[in-house]
Structures are given as C-alpha cells and as structure tokens.
Amino acid sequence: MYKILAVITARGGSKGIPRKNIKILGNKPLIAYTIEAAKKSRLITHLVTSTDDEEIAGVAKKYGCEVPFLRPKELAQDKTLTLPVMQHAVRFMEQKLGIKFDYTVILQPTSPFRKTEDIDKTIQLLIDTGADSAVSLVKVEAGCHPIKMKKLHGNRVLPYCVKEIEGTRRQDLPVVYKRSGAVYAKRRDLLIEKSRLYGNHITGHIVPQERSVDIDDEFDWLKAEYMLKKLKDKGYRF
C-alpha cells in the first residue's frame, strides 16, 4: 500500500478576502469542504492542515483534520511559494512518523466543490502512468481561450501567444484546459529530492466546469455562493 500525504494549505493572512479559509460558505467554513472530501479518500493515508494560524487550526481540528504543527511564520508570507511549504510538511511528518511517503497531494481550501472522486482519480492517474505529477484540469471557456488573448505593443494589438485567424467561430476553437486548482498530486521524491512541484511528465484529470471555482477575491466568493445553490439544486451534497 502506498503511503500518501495530503496537505491542506491554509495560511491565515489572505488579502483578497480576509480570513477566507474559515469564512462561512453555505453553512460551514470554507476549509471544511476540503477536509470532508479528503477524509473520504480511499488512497490518502495521512491528512494534515498546514497553517500558521491558531484559529484556522482549531477549525480544521473541529472537522477532523490533524494539525500536527503550526507553520513557521517565514513560510506564511504573501510571497511564500508552495514548494517550501510542502517540503516543510513532508519532512515534518516523515520525521514524526518515521516513514517515507511515496506521494504527496496539495489540497487548497479555495476549491470547495471538488469531490472525493476528483482526488482519488487524480492520484490514481499519477500512480498508473508513472508521471512526475497529476493535476485536476478544467476546460477553458471560449471567452477566455488563449487564441483571444492579446498584448499591446505601443498602440498595436498583437497576439499574446497564438495567432487568431480572422473569422474563427467560437465553436471552432480547439479545446484547451487549465489547472482547476482542486488537486495537485506528485511523487514525493520530485518534491523533496528535486525541489519541483510538477516535473517534466504531467498528467491530468478533467473536472466539470460546474464544480470548478478557485476562490481568490470577492467576485469569486459570490460566484461560489451562486454555484453552491445551483449544485445543491442538482442534488449534490456538500
């Protein structure tokens, strides 16, 4: 059986939405959605929350997630990268438990509508393919397609990365995906030995648009509130 550590990354100093990770969405704190989905995973063997904040730690514990440490302040700054946060969590847990993990998973509280199947299918894809990492993907809406992205050179409008053929219909645009933000799974040695998050071989599990939101600002929060109602009307249980 593989040893798989999932880390819920939840620092206290969010700027776009103050106290975002424990703000109430529907009838419970935002972080609770992620904890509840992760606890049902059939593949995750160890689940922890990495936070620098006592209140967030308390909420995480209330919903059944282990918080074995408080993240050092130097790893909880506005510009702190995910890589050292994950390396700290993995090394702490390996030393605490006296084991070596096979895989690690990043779960961000800002994607509340991921399902347990999204977590397990992403991890299983990583295991089955032997890739360096596996991520959840969501289809990009036509209005945000990279072909439509432009840049200004002086006052000239130029393609940002892909030339747009004049007259191309929305329906004829090739399908493209972006990372949804819900699940990031990777080999432990990629993270610890090579200090990388993705590696060269990345595979992806597609999640539906109707359950894909990555909450960063107030507009995203309003979108999440709207989505939650619509999803519950469709029979989803969160």
Supply database-style keywords.
single chain; 238 residues; alpha/beta; Spore Coat Polysaccharide Biosynthesis Protein SpsA, Chain A; 6-stranded mixed sheet; two-stranded antiparallel ribbon; 6 helices; 29% helix; 21% strand
List the helices and strands and how they pair.
Layout: E1 4-9, E2 24-25, E3 28-29, H1 30-39, E4 46-50, H2 54-62, H3 82-97, E5 103-107, H4 116-129, E6 133-139, E7 150-153, E8 156-159, E9 177-187, H5 188-192, E10 202-206, H6 218-233
Parallel strand pairs: 1-4, 1-5, 6-10
Antiparallel strand pairs: 2-3, 5-9, 6-9, 7-8
What do these coordinates show?
The protein has a single domain (4-140, 176-233), classed as Spore Coat Polysaccharide Biosynthesis Protein SpsA, Chain A (Alpha-Beta Complex). The model has no long low-confidence stretch (mean pLDDT 96). The radius of gyration is 19 Å and the shape is globular. It has 238 residues and is an alpha/beta fold. The protein has a six-stranded mixed sheet, with helices on both faces. A two-stranded antiparallel ribbon has the order 2-3. Strands 7-8 form a two-stranded antiparallel ribbon. The longest helix is centred in the middle third of the chain and has 16 residues, at 82-97. Helix content is 29%, strand content 21%.
